[in-house]
Amino acid sequence: MKLSLFLIIFAGLCCCFMTNQLLQYHVIDEMKSWHEAQEYCRKEHTDLATVISMADMDRLSQDLGNKKVWIGLYREAGSSRIWQWSHPEVQFNESQSNWNGGEPNDVEIENCGTVRSSLKWVDLSCNEEKPFICYDERNSSHVIYAEERRNWTDAQNFCRNHHTDLISGPEQMRKLNVVETEQLNDLIFIGLFRDTWQWSDGSNSSFRPWNLNYDDERNVSSCTMLNEEGRWSSEDCGDEHPFICHDDHVILINESRTWEEALYYCRHHHHDLVTITNLDEQRWVQEKTKKATTPYVWTGLRYTCTLGFWFWVSDEVVRYKNWASPGQVNECDMSGAMETGGEHKWVKKHDEEKFNFFCSTF
């Protein structure tokens, strides 16, 4: 490592002891309409809360008690429906779609995706009860076929409670060869769905733990309420309720720079290159990679060949790890980047390569 760069990094290590918390929630116990709550959150924090995982839901439920509160999900009357994958970490890509001929045909309101033996996709009403396929990151076979029949929302809840999620995206779908073909004679729910909802802060998380009486009337403007049971419901945006704001402490910089240039930029304009210490922070950061313009995005990971280990420039110990291939050779002048596609794994890159990068703001 160059001496000047080592001294710059070391200076950061000496003065930065705060553990990163990239997403912070604030429950505001004031009665406001959804749009009034949005205005308040944008003035006092970052925005109305974006919720991307069950871990976020668990964090919120600890502070809510019996409150019903606004979050940042809303829809405008007549908005176009957009296809998405249930697994929050998988982005829908139209160029990789695999529709059966004539699909999606939307014969009635058909907002959920299925497959049959050809593995081609067919749209279907989410209220139909069908078998379904879960994906489990912890299971060696990954694919779990459930013969019991449920509607799409119930199937999603089952997969999230017992496995990872409904099977989502081409990479997971390629593992379907472990499911016997004859099991797919019926239409089978997968993690494909479409809706008109969007997040107040512009993010595109597809996480949707709706209540069992979810209203999908897309011609009505609605806003989302988190209720006492930890479920979501669509409500009149003019109703007044408490609400949740969030502070977002990570920024994607859509400029291509070397790792050292990215480090200088973050420390001059914000706080530092981003540190990721747990799975929740990983999910929040990777959600933002969807807007990156390079195949990888720099983080605050750096390798010291003098001491022979990886470290975060913020002085955090590298305990949580998400390497694409732990067997990669560690070399001098290597830094850590995140994939902007696929499973958003960490990779080791020469620090003279130029990528977008993430800055933390505190």
UniProtKB/TrEMBL annotation:
Positions in coiled-coil regions: none
Name of the protein in question: C-type lectin domain-containing protein
Keywords recorded for this protein, A-Z: Disulfide bond, Signal
Lineage: superkingdom: Eukaryota
Span of the signal peptide: 1-16
SMART domains linked: CLECT (SM00034)
Domain C-type lectin: 25-135, 145-246, 246-360
